[in-house]
Amino acid sequence: MARRKKLRYKKIGFKITTNQKAIIQDYCKARKTTPVKLFKKAVQFYMERNQAMPKHDYHISKNQLKLFDIE
Question: What is the pLDDT of residues 17-41, one digit of tens each?
């Protein structure tokens, strides 16, 4: 039997204000969920809506040097 590939998780951190934390806690308490689940659902919703965005279309200003362009 073939083994499934092990999932790897990465930590992401960010800071919020105390007022934002209180709002999130109130929301989670009312909906009977946790802040982690709330954030995961929000990220998943955002990624599904913006999935069609180009992957490597970076903005390059007109003043940027072209040192490594091979043309």
Answer: 999 999 999 999 999 999 999 999 9
- Residues ≥6 apart with Cβ < 8 Å to 38: 24, 27, 28, 31
42 phi/psi in degrees, rounded to 5: -65, -45
Domain ranges for the chain: 18-49
Q: What sign for the dihedral angle of Cα 7, 8, 14, 19?
A: positive
Neighbouring residues of 12: CB distance < 8 A, sequence distance ≥ 6 = none
Q: Rounded to an integer, what distance in angstroms lies between the CA atom of residue 27 and that of residue 39?
A: 12
